[in-house]
Amino acid sequence: MCIGDLPNITRLEQVANQCKIDELKQVFDEAIEEWGDHANFGYNPQLKYKEQFLTRRLEYITEVLRQMAMIRPNVVAVVDHDLLPLIED
């Protein structure tokens, strides 16, 4: 068994290093508007702004899966359903 996800503190540090505070405030305000005013609880700002929030995480997860597939004939992966189409690419 292997849990292959980028540690949350590392992901947050990467986001903090590549984004400006004003950009993050805009994402936050947009999310609050979608969740509160529009009751759109399916809205995920990480998917809309995947370049800022998900790219490195997806690269990490994909590489872990690739490495596992090279050493084991059968791999069962449990992945967030929102990330699956992005990992398949």
Task: Walk me through the structure.
The chain is mainly alpha-helical and 89 residues long. It has one domain (8-88). The protein contains six helices and no strands. The protein is flat and about 50 Å long. It starts with 7 loop residues before the first helix and ends with a helix. The mean pLDDT is 88.
Provide the fold topology.
Elements: H1 8-18, H2 21-37, H3 45-48, H4 50-53, H5 55-71, H6 84-88
Q: SSE string, helix = H, strand = E?
A: HHHHHH
N→C terminal distance? 24 Å
Rg over CA atoms, rounded to whole Å, is 15 Å
SS class: mainly alpha
* Poorly predicted parts: none
Shape field: flat
- Report the portion of residues in β strands: under 5%
| Helix fraction bin | 55-70%
Please, how many helices? Answer: 6
Oligomer: single chain
| Count of strand segments | 0
> Domains counted in the coordinates: how many?
1
Largest sheet: none
Mean pLDDT: 88
Task: Using brief descriptors, characterize the structure shown.
89 residues; 6 helices; 65% helix
